[in-house]
Structures are given as C-alpha cells and as structure tokens.
C-alpha cells in the first residue's frame, strides 16, 4: 500500500521545522485507520445488540483491524471518482470478509458519520499533542521568568522606552497567556471528541429504533463523548478549537516578535542560541539571524489564515454541506500542524534563549535616563501637584535631550533652584514596582493550573 502522491508543491517551512508528530496524526494512514476503527465500533455495537450476527460483527472487527485490508491506491482512485472515500473503504472491507459475513459493514451509517467520528479521534489526539507543546513552552517560560524576576530592563510602549520593568515581569505576561491557552484547550476537548452517528439526514432512521443505544456503545468503544443531536452541519466546535489553536500560535508569534526586536543590534538584550552557521547569511559573514523567531511567525500567520477559512466552512446550509466540508479537509490538518510547530519552536527558543543583563542595564541609560521621568514626576507630585510636576519634568526631559545630558543632571540643577523641594536620586533598579511579584504570580498560576487540571491523556511511552 502506498500513500497518494502529494498534489501540492514543497512546503519549505514545514519541511524545515514542521511538527512531525502532529503531521502523523493527520497522515493518510492514520486517517484511514480512524475510519476503520469507527466501522469496527459500529459493527461491534450492532452485534452486541443482536442487530447483526455477533460472529459477523466479530469478523468485521477483525478485518478492520487488519492493516492489509485496504489497498490505499485503489481507495484514493475510488474516492476521486465518488468524491468521498468511505464508499470505497466499505467495499474493500466487505470484500475482505468471508462470503458468509458480507453485507453488514456500514449498516445504517452515512459517509460523514464515519469521517466525522474519525475526525473526532484525530482531534483528541491532536489536542494531546498541543497540550504537551503548551506544557513545554509554559515550563520553559516559568523557569526563565523565575530566574529573571529581578533582572531590570527597559519596559517599552509604542516602541519606545517607557518605565523600568524586569525580564521576569515581561515573560510572566507570556506565561499567563500560555496558562490560559492550556485551560481553554482542556475545556474544548469534549466538544470536539464527540461521536457522529445519525445517518444520511441526521434523523437516524436507517439505524432503527435502537439508534441511540448504538451511538452510545460506539462512543464508549472509541473513547468519544456521546451525542444526542447531529452535528453534520453544525461546525461551531471546529471553529472554537480553531480559535484556541490560533490564540496559542499568536502568543508564540508575539513572543517571537519580541525576541526578534530585543535581539536587534542596537538593543541586543537577548539573542537566540548560537552555533556554527546558525542563522548565517550567504553573503554577510557577521549575521546570526533569529531563525526560530522568524519561523514561529511564519507558522502563526499561516494558522490564522486557516482560521478564516474554517470560519467560512461553518456556514453550512440545511442538513449537510455543499462544499464547506471540503474546506476542513485541507485546513484542519494545516492549522494543527502550524500551531504545534509554532509552539514547539517557541519552547526551544525559550529554553535556549541567551539573556544579556549588562546590555539591559546599559540600555536604561540609552536616552539619558529619561526612562525615569515618571518616577521623577511621582516624587514631585506630593509637593507640586501631579499636573505641575508633569509639566516640570516634561520641560526637564526636553532640556536633557537638547543639551545631550542626563535627566539626573538637569533635575539636580533644577532642584538647586527650588530649595523647598527635596533632593531626588533616580535609580531604575528601585523603580520596577510590582514587577517581581508579577513574575512570581505568573509562575504560581502556571503551577496551579498544572496541579489543578492534570493532563487527561496518557503521555506517550
């Protein structure tokens, strides 16, 4: 058996940094295996209830478990003709049975029942991979946040230095995002691992009067959540989990953009891991480009484009789609692979990130210490009132820039002309407010999330 020749060109980003484990979840062989598991569970339920002969049900289960029961080349050839793969799958499974056991595969089901239940299995496996990627990123951020809770650096707003903060407080914000993403991922799990078995129009008529019982047994057999309402045309759960994916990828991208910005030559506060020719230029020997960060951004942007398509795919009319479902076939695997890839790279980025505290300290003085302007204003406010203090420090800041001197110098001279005011010594290391507590709170919340909501899947061996 062979996998069909890819109909798309080279995806260079995925080739270099794609998450192989997530790609395997949505591989052709795993997809077909999921469909076979659903057909086997259906036969098991019907045999258990006496709807079909138990021996026949057991034979169907055995054929479904046999890797050699499906000729993939023939399956894809049939699917190209039919437009869907399940008719060909059923015909091959039935033909693989002994003559006396034929005629009961897929009894009462419809193509989308099998494919959506198979998708539910894949989505549960995909969420398990994403949870591990989020956990790896969260653990790496928690360690770096705790390590640098008091490492003072410039906080920046609108791209400019604003007030002092710490690297730990900055990273703590990202850690809080990851904490929320993990919580959201666990919350949406049951929405997407729901069995689908309602027949052609969603009424379960072909399944007979024991349709609900069949569905319950199939769900139990597959480890899925039972359903009482059809979701062939209702794709809100897909949109929901897609939003969780995109949110996670976006946080990874935001972190990557921050690393890219802070590693600029004129800032140099952090850098990606170094190594022989890592991030090298073909023509500029000095370059060491932030290749992980760049690739994370690429994956995240790609994930967001998939979300747009999946939102459109949810606009299904009547009881079954007319083209919208096919959008999912392409975009769901792409979304999950892009998201997992971004998160895996982000975790490695954080684990290997080089931090340069000396450069952070030097940059606090890059603009003549004007980063301490708010601190100076707050120190003067009790004596002058906030507005007058703001105007005074504003004028001093402009003077410092004009004369290319420090804020401390012009402030000290100005205070000498105002002897009724107390002396003020500006020190960025004492002006970080609750930064260290913010870092500690983020780490504590992450650890609490892991302890309170343990992973519901078994870790791979």
UniProtKB/TrEMBL annotation:
InterPro entries: AdenyloSucc_lyase_C, Fumarate_lyase_fam, Fumarate_lyase_N, L-Aspartase-like
Superkingdom, taxonomy of origin: Bacteria
GO molecular function: isomerase activity; lyase activity
Keywords in alphabetical order: Isomerase, Lyase
SMART domains reported for this sequence: ADSL_C (SM00998)
Gene3D superfamilies, sorted: Fumarase/aspartase (C-terminal domain), Fumarase/aspartase (Central domain)
All residue ranges annotated as the Adenylosuccinate lyase C-terminal domain in the record: 368-443
UniProt family annotation: Belongs to the class-II fumarase/aspartase family.
Protein name: 3-carboxy-cis,cis-muconate cycloisomerase
Species: Aeromicrobium camelliae
């Amino acid at each position: 058996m062979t996998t069909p020749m890819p109909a798309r060109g080279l995806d260079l980003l995925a080739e270099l940094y794609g998450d192989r484990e997530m790609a395997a979840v949505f591989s052709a062989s795993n997809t077909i295996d999921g469909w076979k598991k659903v057909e086997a569970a259906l036969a098991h339920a019907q045999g258990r209830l006496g709807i079909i002969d138990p021996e026949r049900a057991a034979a169907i289960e055995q054929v479904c478990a046999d890797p050699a029961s499906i000729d993939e080349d023939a399956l894809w050839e049939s699917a190209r003709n039919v437009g869907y793969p399940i008719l060909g799958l059923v015909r091959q499974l039935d033909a693989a049975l002994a003559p006396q056991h034929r005629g009961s595969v897929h009894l009462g089901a419809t193509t989308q029942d099998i494919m959506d239940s198979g998708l539910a299995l894949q989505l549960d496996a995909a969420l398990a991979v994403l949870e591990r990627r989020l956990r790896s990123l969260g653990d790496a951020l928690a360690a770096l946040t705790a390590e640098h809770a008091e490492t003072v650096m410039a906080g920046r707003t609108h791209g400019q230095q604003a007030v002092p903060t710490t690297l730990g407080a900055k990273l703590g914000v990202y850690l809080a995002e990851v904490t929320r993403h993990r919580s959201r991922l666990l919350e949406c799990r049951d929405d997407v691992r729901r069995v689908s078995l309602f027949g052609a129009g969603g009424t379960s008529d072909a399944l007979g009067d024991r349709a609900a019982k069949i569905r319950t047994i199939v769900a139990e057999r597959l480890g899925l959540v039972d359903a009482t309402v059809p979701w062939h045309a209702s794709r809100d759960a897909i949109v929901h989990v897609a939003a969780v994916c995109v949110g996670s990828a976006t946080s990874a991208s935001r972190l990557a953009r921050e690393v890219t910005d802070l590693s600029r030559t004129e800032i140099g506060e952090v850098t990606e891991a170094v190594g022989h020719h890592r991030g090298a230029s073909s023509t500029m020997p000095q370059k060491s480009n932030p290749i992980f960060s760049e690739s994370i951004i690429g994956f995240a942007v790609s994930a967001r484009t998939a979300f747009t398509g999946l939102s459109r795919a949810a606009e299904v009319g009547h009881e079954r789609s007319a083209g919208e479902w096919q959008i999912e076939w392409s975009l769901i695997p792409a979304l999950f692979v892009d998201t997992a890839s971004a998160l895996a790279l982000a975790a490695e980025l954080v684990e290997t990130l080089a931090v340069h505290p000396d450069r952070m300290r030097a940059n606090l003085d890059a603009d003549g210490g004007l980063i301490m302007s708010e601190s100076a204003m707050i120190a003067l406010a009790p004596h002058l009132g906030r507005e007058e203090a703001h105007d005074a420090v504003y004028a001093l800041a402009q003077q410092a820039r004009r004369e290319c001197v420090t804020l401390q110098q012009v402030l000290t001279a100005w205070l000498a002309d105002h002897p009724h005011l107390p002396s003020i010594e500006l020190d960025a290391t004492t002006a970080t407010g609750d930064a260290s507590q913010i870092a500690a709170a983020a780490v504590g919340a992450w650890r609490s999330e892991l302890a309170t909501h343990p992973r519901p899947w078994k870790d791979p061996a």
